[in-house]
Amino acid sequence: MADVRTRVAEAFDRADRLDPVLGTYLGRFTEQAAAAAEQLDAAVADGDGAGPLHGLTLGVKDVFATRDAPATCQSRVHDADWWAGRDAVPVARLRAAGAIPLGRTTMAEHALGRPDPALDFPVPRNPWDINRWTGGSSCGSANGLPAELFDVGLGTDSNGSIRIPAALCGVTGFKPTHGLVPDGGCRPLSRSLDVVGPLARNVRDCASTLAVLAGRPDTTAWRTDLRGARIGVPAKALEESAQLSEDCAAAFAGALEELREAGAEIVTVELPEVYPLFAAQFITLLAEAFELHGAGLRTRWAEYGRPFRRTAVLGGLVGAPTYLHAQRVRASAAASLRERFDGLDAMATPTWPTTAPRYDDPAALGTVSWLPGLWSAVGFPAVAVPMGFGGDGMPLSLQLAGLPWSDFGLAALADVYQSNTNWHLRRPDLAAGSLPAAVPVSEPQASPGDPEKQRWLAAALRDTGVDVDDAEVAEFTGMWGLTSMLFGFLPELPVDQGPLTPTLPPL
């Protein structure tokens, strides 16, 4: 294996060739990484022990503070002095274990929505087809992996923001149990949902990185087969409401057969929590995002990108009773899901219902799905691994979810599937000379709607202190229609039932 200095230099050389099209980096730590590589090589030459992640190269989502540069969250609205000159706790742990941060990776602004091409930031491209979306919000931490720009991407996940880009870019992404990894120095989006986790080309690299992030030795009990494992499949929910494409459904059926052949018992389970949790998740995300960004939206509206501001502002219309009701639904559903896991080692679904949409297909870009958010709502761990390709040549992904604190056992299950397939070994054609020129991203267009509803929405937003132009309101009235519809999916609960948020058993 090449020395660390050589590997770092080669990674930056690939970035010189490929990053201008892929849009992986917001900024690179060229000098700092070279110096760190030299120190690691010198330490080994002197006989000092190597850390568990010795020489691992790292792409850091721009939501994390690093001592090398301030975290901007890919936004013009940020505090450059926040944690200035310091590493976020996850970054510090990885660095202490021998990992080398190579740079800040692109993301959806403040980890919500999609990057706005009107802002002066790179637009991340899918390495399998640069005319397609990477998934968000950990965009660059995913799309740099197939290009071998780094070994591991560090991301965050509040509603699938690790698993969706992993799925669409054909890599592995791990959302750990809520609370397993400390998040000091990571800018929040939704405080009760956010988790920190790794993306990599395979499960084992995710697991070794996650162990360091969690501050524990990597003692994962890797398996050679799945004999004795029971994996639940919510077949009815998938058929009735997941809206899987034909390619995705076929690939998922093939993945289940692979799991059976490895020795797992596949059992059908009910999942009545789908719609209540989908509603509670989205309501929580919006309300908590507005709590963090409401002041900025009131005073600096035009400086935010359109995708972010048009989503986050709706949280201002979520009243306290609705928000608190959503938290009780999350807690109740988490308790019922723990009971449904009795006798199961994991539940399996696709990670996302389709392959990556094209940037010039607004309808497909607006797809929403309960598949990833279900596990964010209750804080359970979930891992996304490649499970094949659609007819368009784009990746598809299998998701395995487990009980709280079963993270490393879940990794061992996923690793058996991955070891028995080769989807994660495939690479896109990324020869620099073959990459077509980047194309502009289409702007959202106002859709016809009820003028009365639009006037009501504009007035309601102004009541929160956010003054939005009526013409722009017309472009996201539909999003508010979806949000308000979700209120009706929150089931009635006894007034004395359960805590306000999901309570996870102790580690």
Automatic annotation (TrEMBL):
Signal peptide stretch: none
Ranges where the Amidase domain occurs: 8-408
PANTHER family linked to this entry: AMIDASE AMID-RELATED, TRANSAMIDASE
Protein name: Amidase
Organism: Streptomyces fildesensis
